[in-house]
């Protein structure tokens, strides 16, 4: 196939963040508590509530994004900044995002807004259990309506739920104790997953009613499996892994159908959610406009002879113990300092798999390298990050050359932010934020070498990739 020389003119080069990881001001201007606020103590960061202080430095940050040359900026709107108790509007929250959206638009940067990035209002968790209850669907729809009403005139691209496939694997993200285990717990996760699928369909329908030109879709994190050997049994294990890692959600989003393996898995264990025919019809009638792909790593998977099921505490489809497949070592694939496989080809595997199965355009909504960065004489020579991003962009260019519809690429992250589990030790940004887990310092911004590299990639539309 003839390889393209440059990325298409309308391809969106972007970068991403999420509100609780970047904004700080966690208790300011009326913001209410959200579920992840309670995770603060666990990741060893002394001041989570300041994060990267983007709330106070938004103007400066967007100016840097403009200098970087971003065509798109993905961020989430904090539910509890806009509705502190999950129900009533806080004008100061709306005002912050109005300023942010206006500033982006004034620089010609397309906003991509994530409606839900792990931030369920704590009050609603206490009142009815958040996503575990059907009431969670209505609350989320009401929040989305507020966003569409106030920002729909300037925001065209929307993401419904970030990484539903991982929300249901981490019990604390649903407000359940970490040590939860057993089939009753597993049934709750499957029910929460189903509620999120119904909520997604409702909000896609609402977006299209309120903003006919909008483009809206979910963001999943597929971690595609490759077989550990040429043994066909390992290929089947890898296919089963993919069914239970992301197809089971996307089949509902895009077709209103349960993947057969998923349904059988739940039936065998008597953990099926309560399903209504009209919900499935709603999903089938309201598929997404595109699918967001978060890609960091892949998995190598082998056949498992194990027949018994031993469910672990950490969520659905416990890979090593489900008795269908097991995770395997792969000496061909290097790893990050945190043991994440580095496999750029895995991105192509995901894009080809998802696009062929659902026949929808795709948008890469996260991809990046978490690393320790060192400041030497005021500079950060993050060649490791440049290499990682370059290799992943090369895969996207190849997929575009094969004819796959890819709308854009948002690297994770635009600026250093608090990593989900490692705080500020594990950095992802093009822009360095001067703080550590232990010390707040002056929070000044420094452009890393990757900043200048990405700036050039955008300017030349990826010609040298
Ligand atoms: C994605 C999340 O799963 O991975 C981000 O959407 C997260 O919020 C990113 O930061 C990287 O994970 P981590 O644990 O290294 O921060």
From TrEMBL:
The keyword Magnesium does not apply. The active site is at 366 (nucleophile). One of its GO terms (molecular function) is beta-glucosidase activity. It comes from the Bacteria. GO terms for biological process: carbohydrate catabolic process. InterPro entries: GH (IPR017853), GH_1_N_CS (IPR033132), Glyco_hydro_1 (IPR001360), Glyco_hydro_1_AS (IPR018120). Pfam families: Glyco_hydro_1. GO terms for cellular component: cytosol. Belongs to the glycosyl hydrolase 1 family. Keywords: Glycosidase, Hydrolase. This is 6-phospho-beta-glucosidase.
